[in-house]
Amino acid sequence: METILSIQNLWKIYPNGTVANQDVSVDIKEGTIHAIVGENGAGKTTLMKVVFGITQAKSGNISLRGTPFAPSQPSEAIDAGIGMVHQHLMLAPELTVAENIVLGVEPKRGGVFFDFDTAVQTAQETSEKYQLAVPVDKLISELPIGTRQRVEILKALYRNAELLILDEPTAVLTPQETEILFQTLDQLKEQGKTIVFISHKLKEVKRIADTVTIMRAAKVIDTKPASELSIEGIAELMVGHKIDLSRVAAPEHIGPAKLSVRNLNMTRDDGVEAVRKVSFEVAGGEILGVAGVEGNGQTELVRALVGLLPVDSGEILVGSTDIARLSPKEIRQLGVSHIPEDRMEDGVAPLMSIQENIIVDRYEKPDFSTWFRIFWKNVLAHTVGLIRDYRIHAGSPKHEISSLSGGNIQKCVVARELSADPDVVVASQPTRGVDIGSWEHLHSLIVEARNRGRAVFLVSADLDEVLKLSTRIIVMFEGEIVARFEDASTVTAQDLGPYMLGIKRQEESSATVSA
Amino acid sequence: MQQFLLKNFDAVRTAIAILIGMLICVLLIILVSSSPGDSISIFLFGPFSSQRTIASIFEIATPIIFTGVALSIAFQAEQFYIGAEGAFYITAAVGTAFAVSTSMPWFFHIPLILLVSGTFGGLWGLIPGYLKARFNTSEVVTALMLNFVALYAGLYLINNFFRDRAAGFMVSFRLPESAELSRFIDRTRIHWGVVLALVVAVWAYYFLYHTRTGYEIRTVGHNPKFARFGGINVFKVIIIVHILTGAIAGMGGMVEIMGIHRRFNWQDLPGQGWDGVIVAIIGRMHPLYVVAAAIFLGYLRVGGQQLRLMSDVPFELVLVIQSAIILLITARAFLSQWEARMVIRQASEEAES
């Protein structure tokens, strides 16, 4: 097979100083599905952005079918036959499918006016040619996400893409939609297209890819045929050492319930039921893990627990106080800590200093201020202590927190939340996008909080994390609890799968907990 | 060197922007003036030529320090409240009305006038503040519209009830002597207002960087979601910020009347509120830098006046420098390539080692 795209010794450094690609070399063969895997922040997406002309490399060579290629903008890459489907789809929601497909290269009537009929016709032809069924005259906003993604692929094919780049295409899809996407990709491969598939979901990579390139910390670690690699093998190369997935020992002592949720119902802004009749309890000294495909109500549930979203009905008891209508501050004062899902959005103010980020929940404590004045000296000493205790790699507490790496920013957030001496810890995606060293360190911190008798409520899209840490597990699907596992130590990912996908459900699971 | 530049990049950028602005001005003088050498030296050194001109710098800077510091507080909370102009104007009108209708010894009168005008300015700022906090109304639009309300309400008040018909033009009655801020340097109009302005600036600095509320204000400005997450009452912060901005700007207006004009004589918005926006931006919303920026603006204005008096160059040239500097400072991309190159060089050195 011929090499269609060859990348040699490519370096990319972002203006904020992040080295995203360090001496990267990859060859992609024509007519194959080539997966690029790596943890968040490993540099996969950046590499493809360089190929697609969204950003430019500092040094290195790219050649397309043997000729040097250095696109300075996406239109050059498109002209050269490259198409990219972004993780967040780039479609105009208020236009029809046909209009989106021809956008930018519209058929014109008399060279001036948009020719809608021809657009619909060409869109239909393209759809049939590649056997990708889409309703060409529907608005994008009326379509489910899987179909929208198909429109994106068609858009690229309509522009004669020979090399198709898909950036984490399955992140937003349901399992069924994922399978349909994979059939599409196989079909396109048979028609001679080359596909670059960026992912960090190893099972999917194993299922679809011919060749796998593994990236870690901005570098390419290895490129191998998929048949020669096992899932465990890829995982090991991805993180740099054997991952310890062995579960943590069960807690020795479980106390009384510290967080009880009873019959909670929530509605999203768009009127969809987000959380339905959810009830559970978390006792001191245990970790209750929530498994589920993202977007099944976990985010809303977590935000309700910490007072950032209103509930329709139901109770949230911390101890014996109903917090469902209290402010975030009042809830914190009752001993609830929150490790938020999106740390840059909710967890920190990126341009403020580390110490200013640390004290957001405690600046009113007598150690740190009077009614008027803040004692920065005490704040500084406190922050220095946390940086030491939580092994945060930071120059000075006065530096901007955004100058730290993702893992260290997360450690600051966790340090703040766990050092608040909480009764209840609500942790949402506590290790998302952090390096493996921080991953394990953060886990040990959460377990330590558990051992100190805190009630930990853990939501994570990372099943390994849920299985490793949880004492008990509940599974959420479409806003409901569809399964409960009272002893997490015997549960496997295979057991959870059917519940997460909504194929199975335990009948008694949605009933009120019999405490 | 690279380290130093990166660390102080904002300051370096501001300095370069000012330099370029001055350079543009010098070039323009060379173009329009028949004796460019003289004109340039009048422009650059004229402001220092006599005690009177030096004093002018501070007279001009005084009200701008008030409005600039006021706006710094709003801007730090990411509230683009641009109603300082209106607050400045109407508070001066209301303060004048109060001052001419009361009489008492100066050590009661002056603090009381300041208290009344500060309170009124705060209430004036509360209008857009409450609308923003409660209904998420754009404070830019409401404040801008309220500037016109301020103008006509102020004119109505002064011209109908406090107009001094003996004066021959549209002005209020003269303030009683007990309400005047006295001038303490001979042959200048430098008055105690300049001391008040400095006190306010130092207080605002302390308030923003060393108090609970200041911390809350800056946190809301940096990331309101984070502030809410941490338990800060964002509603309260928005209200406080608007009240303070209105109060300080308003007090500045009254101080200008008490120190310089001694009667209300503005038939139009005087512009110090807008100058406040300029110095708040040049001073990067830091109250102490704002003082420096206001003095710099005063220097430019006096230089412009000197040009008008003593050369063939028009005063409007000063506006060119102002605009050029603001443009360069607010354009986030200005010199960002340079900064990026330095960061990249440093990062690749670290990656390779």
Per-chain topology:
The complex is a heterodimer of chains A (about 525) and B (about 350).
Chain A: E1 3-13, E2 19-29, E3 33-37, H1 44-51, E4 59-64, E5 67-68, H2 74-79, E6 82-85, H3 97-102, E7 108-109, E8 113-114, H4 116-129, H5 145-158, E9 163-167, H6 175-190, E10 194-199, H7 202-208, E11 211-216, E12 219-225, H8 231-239, E13 257-267, E14 273-283, E15 287-291, H9 298-305, E16 313-318, E17 321-322, H10 328-333, E18 336-339, H11 343-347, H12 354-358, H13 376-389, H14 406-419, E19 424-428, H15 436-451, E20 455-459, H16 463-469, E21 472-477, E22 480-485, H17 493-500
Helix pairs in contact in A: 14-15
Chain B: H1 2-7, H2 9-32, H3 36-45, H4 51-76, H5 84-101, H6 106-135, H7 139-161, H8 193-210, H9 212-222, H10 224-230, H11 234-261, H12 272-282, H13 287-310, H14 317-330, H15 336-352
Helix pairs in contact in B: 2-3, 2-14, 3-13, 4-8, 4-11, 4-12, 4-13, 5-6, 5-7, 5-11, 5-12, 6-7, 6-11, 8-9, 8-13, 9-10, 9-11, 12-13, 13-14
Can you walk me through this structure?
- The complex is a heterodimer of chains A (about 525) and B (about 350).
- Chain A has about 525 residues and is an alpha/beta fold.
- Chain A contains 17 helices and 22 strands.
- In chain A, the strands form five sheets. A six-stranded mixed sheet of chain A has the order 6-9-10-3-11-12, sandwiched between helices.
- In chain A, helix 14 runs parallel beside helix 15.
- The termini of chain A are far apart.
- Chain B has about 350 residues and is an all-alpha fold.
- Chain B folds into two domains: about 1-35 and about 315-355, no CATH class; about 60-310, ABC transporter involved in vitamin B12 uptake, BtuC.
- Chain B contains 15 helices and no strands.
- In chain B, helix 12 (about 270-280) crosses helix 13 (about 285-310).
- Chain B is globular.
- The mean pLDDT of chain B is about 90.
- Chains A and B meet through helix 10 and helix 11 of A and helix 9, helix 10 and helix 15 of B.
